[in-house]
């Protein structure tokens, strides 16, 4: 019940916001903030009370929903989902505070859509029924489309439509694969037995049962591809990535934070929860190291790392640089998952959480500068370190974390991912370290161009970062340091879940 309350509190908040008068803008903001702080409090409680010694799901609610198709409202958490639920709930109030002065038109509609988006994200990470999982996945699409298309930059309509079409394309393939799984969920040795189901834990068990239609290796390969493309668009994985830079550049700051911090993780979470756990033979086909297809998932991770890093190096727009850096960093997650071992998967999941924190910091920092200078051209700044020392210090922390400096959170996830990948894909892993070198290059070069050198006279009166902006960055900065020196804070949460997943993968 507690988990369901956390999921639907923002939806209740959306209704409350819609009932408020349009002219009561301050009240709308305060009500929205309240309805994002409640899920955060509940997420912290779930995180603290979660039993780390078991891989099973906890705080489970399972009640019938659509009886005709045996669809259930089935939610619960394990070590992976509770970690991402905490990240989602944390970024909720941070984004509301970040939007406090930045959104000037249609504040009521903006806040209502944001609360709807939060419900979709929270529900997605908690869903244990495949149909419910898909509903929450799709629930994030429309609010995101309008938040970019209405409140975005000059090319917002183009970016929103591109985001919508790419995601819809992936969703359709995912829907086809989901229906195929459902229709085959009661077929054993070619004979229909019992009722069909969308229940994810049940489907995982059936997919490992000899003689069951879901355990057929050819079937698993095809549905693996269907789900994979749907999630690959969200990650995004090359070549499904081109919507991301446009969406980030045009989206308001807070929506860029959600896009990088949470929506990208929905893709990698789906790969772990569905592709890896439910279709291990499909995964094996693309990660067994035999021939082209046996290296293909690792190859996609490598391409993401190198392509994203070099594209980031070429950017002069601060926000687009951070967007391309996200593509590169998510490549390490894919490479770690392709390794299929303890180090690789642990590193990938840790990197998912760490990247969510660091990328949120980076986009908030870009927004702070844009609010003052009204442009993001890196070469147009210079010498800001003397004018904005606090802002420079926080940005340096975020840059160092993102480039993987030991002692900060970005290092551990990437190191574990590479360590795991090296056991299976030695040559690709060695080549992937190019991304780390290039990452250091583009962040240090940006640091030099924006903050060092002679101060541009045009920015002599540029105000320092204010208290509201610092408030949004402090919790993320603390997490960046804590997870750098104490990564087990997060790893202990999902260690048993990773062990359980590896047992499933090793059983094929």
Characteristic terms for this protein:
508 residues, mainly alpha, two-stranded antiparallel ribbon, two-stranded antiparallel sheet, 22 helices
Q: Please state the overall shape, judged from the principal axes of the Cα atoms.
A: globular
Q: Treating each run of at least 4 consecutive H or I residues as one helix, how many helices? A: 22
Could you give the order of strands across the largest sheet? 1-2
Along the chain, the helix and strand elements come as: HHEEHHHHHEEHHHHHHHHHHHHHHH
Determine the N-to-C terminus distance.
Answer: 36 Å
Instruction: Tell me the fraction of residues in β-strands, as a range.
Output: under 5%
Spans of at least 5 consecutive residues whose pLDDT stays below 50 are none
**Structural class of the helix and strand makeup?**
mainly alpha
* Largest sheet entry: 2 strands, antiparallel
The count of β-strands is 4
> Radius of gyration in whole Å, from Cα?
22 Å
Mean pLDDT: 90
- Helix content percent band: over 70%
